[in-house]
Amino acid sequence: MVRSSLRTCAALAVVLALGSVCRGDLWYVWFGQGGDNLWSNPDNWLLYQTGENLVPTGAPNDYVILNGLLAEANPPLIQNGIDAVCGILSITRDINPVIPPGDYPAMNMTGGTLVVTGQGIWWGDDAGCQATFNMSGGVINLTGDPGIFEIGWQEDGSSPQCRGTWNMTGGAINCKGISMPGGGGAYGELNVHGGQINVGTADGGLILRDDNAKVNVTRGTIVLEGDETVRVAGYVTEGWLVAYDGLRDVVCSYNALDNVTTVTAEPTLLGDANGDDKVNDADASILGSNWLRQSGARWGDGDFNFDGKVNDADAAILAAHWGEVLAGSSVPEPATMTLLVGLIGLAWLTRKWAAPRK
Ligand SMILES: [Ca+2]
Ligand SMILES: [Ca+2]
How many angstroms separate the alpha carbon of residue 263 from the centre of ligand 1? Predict the structure, then answer.
């Protein structure tokens, strides 16, 4: 049985690596060998202490360790209908040093709920841990003590550098603090492209420590408990908190009635890659120069739907907003329309523009 032998090998590797380390009560290790990537499928999990296939129960001292062998190819998914619980959610070398070279685990959440009952989330914890969380829906509640949402932790000077990345295009996160990065050697990146993150102060609120912290707000919202305008202004000055990778301004306002500080990006037109409040040939040129890029693309590269790629989905967004200016709209110029068609070369775009725009 291939799957059984994979599990045995992975379990053995974890056992050998863990030795006498014992910081949590139970360790639920994700291997993703159940065939569906669903968090709720026991066959995707291996309880280290017993070798059983069990879904995490949510006891506060239990760890969920997502970087089991082969985890990158089979990342966990929480979707509508799944109510997940765990003690500590971790991508961590501290507990499981057996991260294969080049294996960068991920996790996806499109709906459902995740309640983290223990210390919190350690996303990218210690040297070599490079992990990406993609959240487009659902709700994450960190209810434990301290209930920290930590992106990137690593001892200063150790290598290779860990990188914790959290991409959010929808859904909501409720936590008692955000810590980025910790330990002096890590890199943590939080992209708030949609949805909302509510940050309480029970564990310090929003804490950004150095140049290795990057919070990038585009079309999502961060809500901080209390008047945090001075702290936010400091982060903006340092360049640790930016809007649209620095193309736009961060907007921060305090509402005394609700005692919350809201952080957003200034309004931006969809398709405005260069942030000049117009959607025109300059943006089309940017999109064209990055056309069919498969990974790592940003808003300023023409990735308007935040999937890291530049393709027809982004071209469709550009086309839908072609000629707009922030305070109104204008008629696109024929010459620039031709340029864009030439750059992208999509027949359907030509068809779209053949009809008069309203
Ligand atoms: Ca523009
Ligand atoms: Ca895209």
Answer: 23
Check residue 5 and give its pLDDT.
32
CA of 242 to the centre of ligand 2 (A): 20
Check residue 283 and give its pLDDT: 98
Distance 302 CA to ligand 1 centre (A): 10
Domain boundaries, the chain: 2-265, 281-354
CB atoms inside a 10 Å sphere around CB 123: 28
Ligand 2: distance of its center to the CA of 310 in Å? 4
| C-alpha span between 335 and 344 (Å, rounded) | 15
pLDDT in tens, 321-354: 999 999 844 444 444 444 444 445 443 343 333 3
Q: Which two tokens stand for residue 118?
A: 């223990």
pLDDT tens for 140-172 read: 999 999 998 999 888 777 777 788 999 999 999
Residues 162/125, Cβ–Cβ less than 8 Å: yes
Which structure tokens are listed for 14?
Answer: 């974890």
- Residue 196, pLDDT > 50, answer yes
133 alpha carbon – ligand 1 mean position (Å) = 29
pTM: 0.84
Distance in Å, CA 295 to ligand 2 centroid: 9
How far is the centre of ligand 2, averaged over its atoms, from the C-alpha of 304 (Å)?
A: 5
